[in-house]
Task: inverse folding
């Protein structure tokens, strides 16, 4: 195999690797956009729920904090 053929093969491989890297980057950005959209939607929904139902939200938060405190307390002891 001549040096020119080797250079050509290396160039082809490099081009293919760059295309694959670009494709993976675009896919990762799309996943990031999807995740961000989901988090924003969840935050807006939660905000609306808490404003419409403040006392149940306070109660759920207190219950969660109490349960978390129990879990942390039993692990230390």
Result:
């Amino acid at each position: 195999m001549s040096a020119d053929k080797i250079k050509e093969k290396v160039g082809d491989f490099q081009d293919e690797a760059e295309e694959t890297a670009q494709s993976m980057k675009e896919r990762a950005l799309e996943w990031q956009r999807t995740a961000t959209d989901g988090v924003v939607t969840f935050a807006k929904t939660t905000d609306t729920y808490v404003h419409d139902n403040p006392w149940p939200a306070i109660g759920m938060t207190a219950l969660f904090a109490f349960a978390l405190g129990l879990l942390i307390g039993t692990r230390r002891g």
In short: The mean pLDDT is 92.
